[in-house]
Amino acid sequence: MTQDSSVKTADISMNTAKKPFFSKAMLHNGRQNIIANFKLMVVIFILHIMAMPMLIISAMIQMFENGKAFDLDIYAVIAVFTTGMGAAAGLICALSVFSYLYKKTDVDMRMGLPMSTSQRFVSDFLSGLFIYIVPFAAAQIITWILMLIGHLGFDGKTFYIHSSDDPIEVTSSWTCDLFSTAAPYLWRGIIGGILLMIMFYTVTVFVASLCGNIFESIGYNILLNVLVPLVAYMLISAVIDNAPGVSIDRYAYKTISLCGPFGGVVGLVMSLNAIFYEDDIAVYSAYYTYPQWCLLFLLITVLLGAGTYLIYRKRKAEDTGKPVVFGVFYHVILTMAMFCICYSFMIDDGAEVIPMLIVTAVVYFVFHVVRNRGFGHIIKGIVIYVLTMGVASGSYMLIRNTDGFGIGSYVPAPSSVKCVYIPYTGFNDQSRGELAYFDIYGSAPTKLTQPENIQTITELHSEYIEKRNNNELNNIYTQQLEVVYRLKSGKMVYRFISLDEDAMARFIKMDTTDDLRNARADAVETKLKELEKQMEYAKLHSQEFSEKNKYENYTAVLSPQWKYNENGQAADGSVSVPYITLPEDFTDNLAKALRNDITDETEEEYFTPEKPSYQLSVDYLTLDISGSYTAALEYLRSCGLDAENITDMTESVAMGYVNNHMLNCVSDLGLASYASGREFRGNADFASSSYIMDYVDVNNDGMFVYNVGSYSFINEYYDDIAKLLEVSRKRYKSDDVRYTISVDGTVAAIPAKYNELAERVFIRSAADCFIEQAKAMDDTGNMSGTYQRFLSKFTEYYGRDKIVSAIGYYYGKDAASAIYDAMNDFIGMNLNDTNEAYYDDYENYDDYEYEVTVAVSNDVVY
How many CB atoms lie within 10 A of CB 852? Predict the structure, then answer.
């Protein structure tokens, strides 16, 4: 081989050797971009310094000067505003670096630099991102330095708040944990903030690559950031509005949280809101966890960045100056805008078609004129408008006519379900029919894994859909239940179903299955763990000013079921011990005992208990303990809380309870009659009664309700009320229950064997109500219309014999007959509109007050 040939071979090898991607020209270009925008970096840095660093400094100054860090609202507003301004600067960063895309002279010069298209894009993209992100990161370094100072200087320190009138007097104290508490949120917020900024910057570059001038770039950037999450919400809303039983809350937030920077803000806030909640509570949450959101949001950003690069490569230099480089982008934006407008008008069954057409036509032709810089291609524009409206409105009509694509009728097959979550632990734990909604920030849901329970839920779900479609639901007596299916595939299905009377009866039968027993035991254990944490905190801080001697004063009280002891204070009939005398493992041992009792409880003991229940209370914690829970009661006895030492419900206790609480409007006691034979379902039916007019209008089935505590004659039959309170059961389910009694908003059933007593008290109280109503009539003789309807129903249902017999037991037969006749006279008087004439003869009715005070025989055996 000759020397010349060797030289030629070497030259060819050098020319074909792979050049490094990050060339000197590429690095030089990026450096020049940063230098040109250095002042912008300084402005962004100052904006972020005015956010968290300023807020932290303000908090430390306040704590140093007056021991408080609560008056920070104005600084928080400033922090939010400056953070938003700093984030919005990403638009300027991107457009500044890629400004050559809008100038023909600059684009030719840039494309003539010794860089490939890939190198030029990466250099410009990363340098612009550097200009945008680095000031934020620098400000956060200062933030963490200040957080460290605050943690070392203030966390763990007790601050004493002094009176404004007397600087020496201490009114309260608190121990600072502000900085250690905020730290987990802060670092997550910083990482999430960086992801949001990268997304916003990427979207801006994406739009800049699709537009030929800066005006359209800014406008379409704003439209894209707003329309994407808005269209996502409206699409989901359109589907769910036409799919009964599906809640938008369970689907929209997850989707919106991934829709660009604006939707990402929602996702970040909601994921931060749940970072400290248990995994089993998060199973039905409406948003992603923080790690999930970060990974998904980053993945979408990367994909968007890759798409931006591909568009940048296909963009031609001669496209500079065009409103939109790729027409498809224009039509996508326009279609999204038209869909939002169509949805807004068509959501009410399409009643606003003409206004919708006018608004969409105006919006469309504004877009058309701006894009075409005039009225050119008007015929083509009209055709495109028709097609665009067809797609936008047709999409909504398709969703509506297919009932949300059939989503509302979907019921998972039992064999495909891994487990089901419901917000329910037992019929006695519900009140006022609030069965439907999960408490996302409260207790964990009940997890159903037994095949028979999963089968029951899916059957109830299918039956609900069938009744709904056939319009057979009894909407007066239905209760909503939220159900979450976890399928074996990992998919989550969220649904609301309605349960009528028959469905509720079948649903409640699950109460004694292992799933529900475990759920009740878990709920009790959670309550006791919260008590343990509360006591540990009180013990730890017992020497602080605001907590001084508080721990030593806590009392554990075991009471009868109706003796609620506010703040844990002992009352008549209760037994109590100081909490500090209880064993250290008191809560653990009691939780174990209760779990054993709940597991061993028979169906009869659960649904129709013979023994009365008790209530354990410590401070604000209250725990109902069934009389059949022998293990728990035995353990409490060993701790000094012996249920056998509790005073029975006596007339004096009932009298004191009614006088001290109800007549002072602190609580109320009521009695209900289920005249039509409706089945009592415990607290899942309704809560307490206050006044008769609250209930009669809606109870067309013949149920009567009144307020015992509002009558002046109640002291004549405290013994009867005491007996009803004694025999009533808060948790009781039986087909033959006809009367219930309510105290402090809690409803209890009266077993059927005491119906005669309950009926007598009910009729007696109705008579008292009549007397009070009659005495309260105004000068025109008018009586409450609601009460008139009650009185008419009451006399029709019970009849003369029962009413006279019951009233006669207290007042005597003659007075009872007179009262009954007066009731009928009043009914006739109101029907015949003779109020005023009858009122003139009514003055002598006060004589009945004397009859009421006549002693009557109380020799009755129950």
Answer: 18
